[in-house]
Amino acid sequence: MIIDGTAVVIEGDNIDTDVLYPGSFLNIDDPDAMKPYLFEGLDPGIRDRLEPSCVLVVGDNFGSGSSREHVPLAMKAWGVGCVLGHSFARIFHRNCINLGLPVVTSPQAAAAAVAGERIHIDTDEGAIEVSDERYEIAPLPEFMAEMIDSGGLVEWVRGRLKA
Q1: C-alpha 109: how far from chain center
Q2: Do residues 60 and 14 lie in contact, with contact meaning Cβ atoms separated by under 8 Å?
Q3: Distance from C-alpha of 150 to C-alpha of 71, rounded to nearest angstrom
């Protein structure tokens, strides 16, 4: 899978889902209706920097706290193409994959990224290009790539059951 996008950098480590999508909006189940509340407890201005296929660049332990599927659903609704980070909370990482949002761990690439620059990720080859530098990553397992391409776990399973 090839991911090309403009970097949107979110500064800080240990950013939890409670500030990424506050609990008072958890009753909303339509991803498009979730969009106005993404980053509401952190910095609502981040939404102004989002553009189709952008790559969110985040710090250590991003997405810790509550298991809120609203965060990756709202990110996808905004058109976020990938989340690239130093490291991720386990549940957040898996929620992204399960909902069809690519998530890539590379502390070196995330540290090198500058807001507004282009990022190229090849999950099959296992490479990220940032600022004319190349960073190696583990290739994405085939079943995970298929899951993301299918739109997430539920659609991937549906497709496999039809086969």
Answers
A1: 15
A2: yes
A3: 19
Q: Which one, of 131, 120, 115, lies nearest residue 56 by Cα?
A: 115
- What pLDDT, in 10s, does the model give residues 39-71? 999 999 999 999 999 999 999 999 999 889 999
Q: Which residues pair with 133 in a beta bridge?
A: 130
Q: Which of 68, 113, 75 is nearest to 92 (CA)?
A: 68
CA of 146: how far to CAs of 22, 95, 143, in Å?
Answer: 31, 15, 5
What is the CATH T-level fold of the domain 2-162, as seen in this structure? Aconitase; domain 4 (3.20.19)
CB-based contacts of 30: which residues, under 8 Å, 6+ apart?
A: none
The residue with tokens 């502390």 is: 107
Q: Please list the residues that pair with 120 across neighbouring strands.
A: 4, 129
Question: What type of residue is 142?
Answer: E
**Tokens at 79, concatenated:** 């058109």
6: tokens are 């403009």
DSSP assignment letter at 64: B
What is the model's pTM?
0.95
Residues 15 and 58 sit within 8 Å (Cβ to Cβ): yes
